[in-house]
Each structure stands twice: as structure tokens, then as C-alpha cells.
Amino acid sequence: MNMSPVSILLSLANFRSQALGSLTGSSAGAKDENSWSSIFQGIASDSASAAPLAVPTKAGEVQGLSSTGRNLGLFDPESAYKMMSVINNNDVSYKAQFSELSEMKSYVSQMQDAGQGLGSISESTSDEDITSQLQNFVGQYNDWVQRFNPDMQTGGAMADAQAAQISRYELDQSIKNPFNGARDGVHGLAGLGIVIDPSTKLASLDTSRLNSLLATNRKGAVDTVQEFSANFAKSAGLLNSAGNFIPNRLNNLDKVIHYFADHKSALQQEFGTGDAAKPSGLIAQALAAYKQNYGL
Fold first, then answer.
1. Which one of 105, 114, 182, 226 is at 20 to 30 Å from 286 when CA atoms are compared?
2. pTM of the model
3. How far is CA 202 from the centre of its chain?
4. Could you tell me which of 16, 66, 63 has the C-alpha nearest to residue 37?
């Protein structure tokens, strides 16, 4: 089951502060001021962690575990081991998602530039140039869709990333918006012949329809393109704006990834090693890209 960075931290905190009492045979309600609840809640709320976990006596070693990687000092070492397996898997999936979402952020910026570029079209622009610019935009949009569509399917690095899903939806809806050009009697880009296939999510341009509109309502066609240009660029810019969908998700992922990196040995010492993650396919590719770019 995929979990968000915040939910895995809070689940881990809940496990540590509420369930670990039964694992060790101590009081289920016992807590101390350095409990993981306060530590993980701090991360989840974007504040600094107040207290570190205990560290192993020797750097790089996990002390006190059995040959199978279990902490036999716990009342239920198997449950703790499974929790660590979840951590291992999520550590990998978060890195893969961070890598792909960072790529998407760059692509969204490129789409913003492409949308803004259409604003240079005027009534004096030749039919050939208008057609060429719209075809180029359609091509760039389709490149963006094809680049990230596999990542958003089941098994992809961003299958559960709301920021990615919303980004695709917003740009899709911006192209479909029927109100661009309405004051000139044009019903959005569809009036110019640009539509999105509901199955493939790819855009296409009907040049015959475009040429017909240019011949009968040139001003309306140009006004529609300029209005779309401004609205599309604004939508793309908002997705990448500070504190909005993509930057916020990247920030949360980065915090969790670095927390796991900084405390992996201590987590293993407490819960056991857990099963190692075994990424494959797109997840493995994205993880390799993350390691190459960020070194973790």
C-alpha cells in the first residue's frame, strides 16, 4: 500500500508511541518526552525535529539484532520487522517520486513558456505561421503527456502523487476550456480545431477547421489564442509557484528522504533491518536517476 510522506511518518510515530509498549511488554500508554510522536509530528508539520533517535555504538553497524535482522528484545519482533520493511519500501518509492516530480516541474515550466509564446500571434501573423506555432504547441503538450503518463499509472513513480495528477488535469482542462474566445463567438481551442483525445489524452490540431475560422473570423481566432495563452501560462505558473502543489510535495518528500537517511541505523536498531526494497521497472529507473542526481 502506498502512503504519503506525512502518513508514513505519523503511522511510524503511532506505532512507536502506542504499540511499542506491547512489543516490549511495558505499559501500552507509557510515553516519554522524546517519544517519536513528537519527533515525527514535527516533520509532518514542517518544523524541525526536537530530538534525535539513539544511534548505534559503531557507525554503519546495527547492534543487538539476530542473524535474521530481528530485534529479539521486543515482545513481537516480527511486527517491528514488518514496519521496517514498509519504511524501506517507502524510502525507495519517495526517492523515485522525487526524481520524477522534479522532472515534471521542469516540464511544466517549459509548457508555461510554450503557452506564453502563443501570445505573440496577432492578426498580422500569416496563416502558415499561426498553424506552425499551434502545431508546435500541440507537439510540446503531447511530449509532456507521453513523458509522464506511464509514471501516473499503477506501478509508476507518481501513481499516488496528487501534485502530478492535478498538474496533468489542470493543463488538460486549460486546453479544453470553452470560454476562451467566447466574446468573439469562438468556443475555446476546440473552435480552432485543437482537441484532446479522451483515451490517449493527446492533443491534435485539425488544420482545415483552423483555416476555416481564420478565413471567416480571423479576429476571433487570434483573440482566442491570445486569451488561451495568458490563461494557460498562468495555470502552469501556479502549479510551480512557491507553496503550491509541486513545490510543496517536493519539499515534503525531501524532508522524509533525508530523515530516513539520517536515522536509518537507529531505525534498524529499534525495529530490525526489515526486508530490503526490490524496485523494478519505472521505479527502479527513477531511483537510479535520483541516486545519480542527488547521491542518496
1. 114
2. 0.79
3. 21
4. 16
